[in-house]
Amino acid sequence: MKTCIALLSVLITGIGFSQQKDSLNTKNPRFIVKMTHGMANSVEFDFTRSQWDKMTPGFDIPDSLTTSLNGKDINDNNYSTSANQYYMFSFSLINGSAKQPGRKFLATTTFHLGYGPELRAEKRWYHENRQIIDTLTSSQNGMEYYVYGNRNQTIAKRYTSRSIVFGIGQHIATNPARLFQFETGFDALCMMSILSETRASYLDSYQVEGIAENGPGFGYPQPLLNESRAETFSSNFIMGILMRVPLEMSFKLSRKSPVASRMRIGAELNPGLATVFTGGLITTNFNMTGGMNFRFAF
User: Fold this and answer.
1) Which one, out of 132, 154, 160, 216, has a CA that is 20 to 30 A from the CA of 196?
2) Nearest alpha-carbon partner for 177 in 100, 110, 109, 92
3) Kindly report the CA angle at 87 between 82 and 93, in degrees rounded to 5?
4) Average predicted confidence (pLDDT) for the chain
């Protein structure tokens, strides 16, 4: 819906210019506006243990949940922004617009403002204590079977937020008079999270294992440890930097119409690096965005 509204506004602007066909035929474009709707892949980041505790009061992580019976760390991490949509508005100044006629390239300074995608970091701590509580002897073959009491404690935390992106770039494109145009360059973007929240959950469960389904499981003591609770907290924003190289191919909607010849539809890929700052940690990883765009030069 947001994309449709934005594209409609650009088209209305184009219709306004269509009332001045004579001036469009003679006036060199000085600016370009572009709307992009695309998808972004994962941006990996994490928080320190103290930061997780600070964001989720009442769900502090005890030492018993960070070390397994064999002494190894047993936390599990998942980070993802996969398959999330974003919207980007770009406004470009054509460098040397007065001298553009006759040139075989187009240079622009571009300003970006975007919304999305979602930022998400998940982490889980758990501890399993499995002990023998009884030994059963078969009356048929004399074999011994162990009965286990298994206590499992788990704390899971998930940080989510939307993001806004703004920045500047320098682009160069092939001849704008041609039907097809290739564009590349360099963008430096700042990313800030908004509408941030962290959800924490706690589970403490106990099970008796190693007896038949119809066996006397009820005869073993089972402490009332089946406890679970969850709570959602508002969180502070995080910041990041995106450095990317745009790669775009577009085509103009008309060769003859003074209005449609200034409109282009394109497809873009933007490989780059994303660096996220979360207080005690700095994480840098490869990032890729891509989508479709509509632009109008005036």
Assistant:
1) 154
2) 100
3) 130
4) 82
Across-strand partners of 62? Answer: none
Residue 60 in tokens: 């502090």
Whole-structure pTM value: 0.78
The answer to whether 194 and 160 have CB atoms below 8 angstroms apart is: no
Whole-Å CA distances, 157 to 58, 123, 154, 225, 281: 12, 5, 10, 21, 17
The predicted pLDDT at position 198 comes to 95
Euclidean distance between CA atoms 195 and 201, whole angstroms: 20
User: What does 81-124 look like in DSSP terms, one character per residue?
Assistant: -TTEEEEEEEEEEETTGGG-TT-SEEEEEEEEEEE---EEEEEE
* Residues 90, 94, 98: CA angle, nearest 5 degrees: 155
pLDDT band at 49, cuts 50/70/90?
Answer: confident
Angle at Cα 250 formed by Cα 248 and Cα 254, nearest 5°?
Answer: 165
Question: Sign of torsion, CA 257 263 266 268?
Answer: positive
